[in-house]
Specification:
alpha/beta, Rossmann fold, ten-stranded mixed beta sheet, six-stranded parallel beta sheet, 28 helices, 13% strand, globular, binds pyridoxal-5'-phosphate
Length: 680
């Protein structure tokens, strides 16, 4: 093999998102041109294209590139252990892989990104399909009143590691789907995520008239008609793309309802080869599995019958079905002409397995869909659960990796063994506390830098020693971001206590059409400027994966106060465990499984926590939250021994790191999917 130059090695490395979970690779790219890297939103390819000559020729850098390149080729060649698992096609509307590729809006996308990476790590033969959302999700900025504005810098395909997908003969893919009787041409971009390929469908090219070219531009925006067209592209187009690539699979995984039209396209394939409707349904069901993420009935994606029938007429004709037949797949009661077509119903009817994303969400989903299985008792509704997990190599900060390297040996290789994590019992309180101090200090200097780059001014007065609480997620109203401020006098007291100071950092985007969420942002923004909060209440602009990584590593406490049971899982709290952050959370989503009385706090207990009426539930939860903070969280953090260390707090940190890290990781999750969902 001819020896590759440093630039050639970097070129190969830059074209695989493997770098997104290998900080040693990222830091090399960053060194090539720090300004370009930062200005491009941490984009390795841009840094490489603008690499400084003297850095590329530095023999130290060259040696490091050699080492990282070797690590990459070893990763790509080494088996992960799950190569014999069912060959899986995975469909999702959004993917959160790295902050430089804004193809995600929140937890669903992050989960899909983590799933794709974990599949690569364990060697699961998985191919992922999504949309090339060129404008992505928006970039957020505030005006002086704290009003959220949105901005859509387009993704330039030449500046990202994507290439146009080709078929076996090397011809560019050009797949056609129909919306009504209009043809829509699709091409696809291929993105390598370790050993996994992600294909992103795109209408923005010359084969399409102007109006259709905008279809794949933005995530979750536009009217219902745009949405159904996007879903036709993702579902029907997704299957046609895989066929154009010459690929068939053992399992087709629909991650949330947006992609559920894959089932109707696969029905069409079977019927075109001469099978009856019943046989075709059977065949599709054998191969398809469905994951639901939506605990609220109204939150499920649905289309009014007229729009559905109009948009899907071409595929209906090729199936030879009546409008009634087609609508039946998405209706709980096919005879109800008023019922809309619900994508989740389609996914449930034409799959062999279905799951929610936490144990509690499994229970909620079984009750929620009981009317679709009237013969079943709620506990027998065929929806199981696989609890979400996070991809540790993506979320573990460089500081946490070195801490674990020093203290836990080969933790990455032996992550599945509890003995690995039990070694934390041998790590001294001093070492754990210094680790926490280092991570908090890193966050504070990041925040100080970040607010200087924000559009609106903000003065931070953060204290490196103070109890630091974080809250960052989508500003969907059920997550109740401003709950902490429901009693202003009471929370102000906590901020004003100079002996036991607290500080709180927020970040998050509200959907541009969600006025309630935008109002929440404005409220917190306005409060953050009040003198009584003394620069210790911060709202960071433009929440993304980078801000997420910093916050989950540096905060002492991660606050999560959704209106139970509306959080299907939530994953941000899982990211804090490896960093020794502690969850302070409503017992919703994953937390009832994670919380064991020693590793964080539950705001109220499981039983007492659901009310029909939010105007009863919200003040009750706020009260419990204040009591937890005042009586437990703050005193424990400031209960110091002679060496100024909080012994009991450190014990909780140890317990969280030991018990939550692997259980709520994407590696555990992907193995559960293989065993319980993918394998027949
Ligand atoms: C982890 C993560 C989420 C998910 O947050 P939850 O509210 O815990 O579900 C959303 N957005 C980003 C950027 C994340 O990193």
């Amino acid at each position: 093999m001819a020896l590759l130059s440093t630039r050639e090695q970097l070129q190969i490395l830059s074209r695989n998102l493997w770098w997104s979970w290998h900080p040693e690779a990222l830091s090399l790219f960053k060194r090539l041109n720090r300004d370009a890297f930062k200005a491009s939103g941490n984009n390795p390819l841009v840094a490489l294209n603008l690499a400084k000559y003297d850095v590329l020729n530095d023999s130290q850098v060259q040696a490091e590139v050699d080492a990282v390149y070797r690590q990459f080729t070893e990763y790509m060649e080494a088996p992960g252990g799950q190569e014999a698992a069912p060959k899986t096609a995975y469909f999702c509307m959004e993917y959160g892989l790295h902050e430089s590729l804004p193809l995600y809006s929140g937890g669903l996308g992050i989960l899909a990104g983590d799933h794709t990476k974990a599949a690569s790590d364990v060697g699961l033969p998985l191919t992922a399909v999504g949309l090339f959302l060129r404008d992505g999700y928006f970039r957020q900025y505030f005006d002086d009143e704290g009003v959220q504005h949105d901005d859509y810098p387009a993704i330039d395909s030449t500046q990202h590691p994507v290439e146009l997908a080709t078929d076996a003969n090397g011809n560019q893919i050009d797949v056609v789907v129909h919306v009504g009787h209009r043809e829509v041409h699709l091409r696809a971009w291929k993105l390598c995520v370790g050993k996994t390929n992600l294909y992103l469908l795109d209408t923005d090219f010359s084969a399409n008239p102007f109006d259709l070219r905008f279809l794949t531009r933005r995530l979750y925006q536009g009217d219902r008609s745009t949405r159904i067209q996007q879903e036709i592209i993702l579902g029907i187009g997704g299957i046609r793309l895989l066929r154009a690539l010459g690929e068939t699979f053992d399992v087709y995984h629909m991650n949330e309802g947006h992609c559920a039209f894959i089932t109707l396209e696969m029905m069409r394939e079977h019927m075109a080869s001469g099978q009856s409707k019943e046989n075709a349904e059977q065949e599709v069901r054998i191969k398809c599995v469905f994951t639901t993420h939506t605990p609220v009935i109204a939150g499920h994606d649905r289309f009014e019958a007229g729009l559905f029938s109009y948009s899907m007429q071409q595929i209906r004709e090729s199936l030879g079905f009546s409008e009634y037949d087609m609508l039946s797949y998405g209706r709980v009661n096919p005879h109800d002409a008023q019922e809309e077509f619900t994508m989740t119903v389609l996914g449930l009817k034409l799959s062999r397995k279905a799951n929610g994303v936490s144990k509690l969400h499994g229970v909620v989903a079984r009750h929620q869909w009981n009317h679709l299985y009237p013969e079943c008792a709620p506990e027998d509704v065929p929806i199981t659960h696989i609890t979400n997990g996070v991809h540790l190599p993506t979320w573990a900060s460089p500081a946490s990796r070195s801490f674990l390297d020093v203290n836990l040996g080969s933790w990455e290789r032996d992550r599945e063994k509890q003995v690995t994590w039990d070694r934390l019992d041998q790590v001294s309180d001093k070492a754990i506390w210094e680790y926490r101090i280092r991570l908090r200090a890193g966050l504070i200097s990041f925040v100080n830098d970040h607010i200087r780059t924000q559009t609106m001014s903000q003065t931070a007065n953060l204290d490196r020693e103070a109890l630091t609480i974080g809250f960052a997620r989508r500003f969907a109203t059920y997550k109740r971001a401003p709950l902490l401020f429901s009693d202003l006098d009471r929370i102000t007291e906590l901020f004003k206590n100079t002996d036991r100071p607290i500080q709180v950092i927020y970040a998050g985007k509200a959907h541009p059409q969600d006025d309630g969420g935008k109002e929440f942002i404005q409220q917190i923004f306005e409060l953050s400027h009040r003198p009584e909060f003394n620069g210790r209440l911060i709202f960071l602009e433009n929440y993304n994966m980078e801000i997420g990584r910093k916050l989950i590593s540096g905060c002492d406490v991660w606050l999560n106060n959704p209106r139970r049971p509306m959080e299907a899982s939530g994953t941000s709290g899982q990211k804090v465990a490896i960093h020794g952050g502690l969850n302070l959370s409503i017992p919703d989503g994953w937390w009832p499984e994670g919380y064991d009385g020693t590793n964080g706090w539950s705001i109220g207990d499981n039983a007492s926590h659901e009310y029909e009426d939010p105007s009863v539930q919200d003040p009750r939860d706020a009260l419990l939250l204040y009591e937890m903070l005042e009586n437990q969280v703050v005193p424990l953090f400031y209960k110091r021994n002679g060496s100024n260390r909080p012994d009991e707090w450190i014990q909780m940190v140890r317990s969280a790191m030991k018990g939550l890290t692997y259980s709520f990781s994407a590696h555990r999750m992907i193995k559960d999917y293989i065993k319980q969902i993918y394998t027949v």
